[in-house]
Amino acid sequence: MHDWVAAANGKTLVLLGAGASAPSLPVSRELTDLVIESMNERLDDHPGYLKRAWVMVREQLRGTSNIEEFYSSLADVEHQDDDTTRFWVQEWVPLPKVLPTDGDGVNGRQSFGFLAHMVQNSVMTILAQKTEAADKAYLHSLVTADVRGIVTLNYDLMVEMAAIEAERPHTTGAEEWDGGVRWFAEDLGDGVLPVLKLHGSLNWRATRVVVGAPLPIVGFEVVGGNGLGPGKLLARLDEPAIFGLSGKMSPHDPYPALRSEFDRMLEAVELLVVAGFSFWDAHITAPIRRWLALDERRRIVIVDPFFDPATTPIRVLVDALCQGCMVEGKPTLAAGLEIDRMRVLNVTAADGLGTLFAP
After folding, report:
1. How many CB atoms are located within 10 Å of the residue 247 CB?
2. In Å, what is the CA distance from 75 to each residue of 42, 44, 93, 185, 243?
3. Residue 306, Cβ neighbours under 10 Å: how many?
4. What crossing angle do the helices spanning 109-133 and 49-60 adopt, rounded to 10°?
5. Exposure of 328 by Cβ count < 10 A (0-12 exposed, 13-18 middle, 19+ buried)?
6. Is 103 helix (H, G, I), strand (E, B) or coil?
7. Angle 20-22-28 (CA atoms, 0-180°, nearest 5)?
8. What digits encode the pLDDT tens for the residues 204-234?
9. pTM for the complete prediction?
């Protein structure tokens, strides 16, 4: 066990980004390639406009490795006339022409929104299927550790399934949420691990009535198995998830409650472990910076094999807090002031989490 984890005496929070699932699940280019392959299969026999639109998309976005950027570029086509960048664009790339044989089906800009929905569905399906078959053993030491909770930005079920394998009681809070600004119940029960899924989950379905008419609030149920089935209360298949480059600060339920819970969980701990997160999402990075600034006893451990102190968006934090870091070959301000509040482990999540939380 890492000395900082031991010193925190259970007051540790763990934040997992996409890289934390990377040992077992596809990310970046690999995931994008799998989505394109899936879309090709789904649209191969489509006779109308949608297939022609997809062929255009596939060629236009060739080389795009970020699946959320891929998705957003499709979802935003419908809103070109409202995009302020239109004043600087002489002409948008022409869309495929609608043919008489296309009938009254989905066509034009509307079809690109439909393709975006299909891309998101393909992502969730791939993650669900890969998670089911993935090796989750590298997460066992984490889910059985004495921590205040796990916060994950991932839609997959790696943490939940690892907890089941390790026989650790846990909850994501989805089925207990009462529609208010607090996500988790006040008392979760002895030994229950809270798993906060800030961007939603592939196995949540918006089917549970929390408050009825005239001002309804809809809650969630959790689908079992690999998370791909319909809800039992209502046969919905669509999952509530923040997907794409925009919408991370969505004002719509349940996201305000999830974000406020993240702040509450931070306030209750002395150590934050961040694995597989690049710090480019400002709605996550800003609360972390605020948390660190408000109490000099608080510390952070970063687990990332690709972390570069010179190019990270938290370079200022590195300079202020990381005694052992070098920025462009030079010691940090923290080194001169003997401030040791940040440690960086340039290893994979699998190796780093095992080292940090080994019994």
Report:
1. 15
2. 19, 21, 15, 35, 10
3. 11
4. 70
5. exposed
6. coil
7. 115
8. 998 888 998 898 888 999 999 888 888 887 7
9. 0.92
